[in-house]
Amino acid sequence: QVQLVESGGGSVQPGGSLRLSCAASGFSVARDDITWYRQVPEKERELVGRKTFVGGVTTYGDSVKGRFTISRDDAKNIMYLQMNNLKPEDTAVYYCQARRWNVRGQGTQVTVSS
Predict the structure, then answer these.
(1) DSSP code for 14
(2) Pick from 54, 63, 95, 107: most CB atoms within 10 A?
(3) CA dist., res. 100 & res. 103, Å (int)
């Protein structure tokens, strides 16, 4: 079964950090384009970042550049999203999506508040 499962969300104070995980089964994250995006109700989906299969190029949305980092553990078949210096505006449901397999995880909630 091809699927992605996100985890690692939670509540954190501004300036804090979280690491999200995107665990894949049924395919290899190393051989797909994996995108992290986030969604707030009544707002458009926002690109957080993407790591491509070809060339392994990593790009980030402007609002998270310098604070968020995408990495991958090939042995565990997991993509990570390290989020540092979190801000209240980072509050959202975070999703990972695999382009070639057209599969998305269920999302994980991140809440940043004091």
Answers:
(1) T
(2) 95
(3) 8
* Mean pLDDT across 22-37: 96
What integer pLDDT is reported at residue 44 of this predicted model? 94
Q: What is the pLDDT of residue 54?
A: 84
> How is residue 55 annotated by DSSP?
T
- 60 burial via Cβ count (<10 Å: 0-12, 13-18, 19+): middle
Buried b (16+ CB within 10 A) or exposed e, 24-51: beebebeebbbbbbbeeeeeeeeebbbb
> 10-12 and 108-112 as β-strands: parallel, antiparallel, unpaired?
parallel
Contacts of 10 (CB under 8 A, 6+ apart): 18, 109, 110, 111
What are the pLDDT digits (tens) for 60-70? 999 999 999 99
Number of H helices, E strands in the chain: 0, 11
Q: How far apart are CA 95 and CA 114, in angstroms?
A: 24
Amino acid letter at 68? F
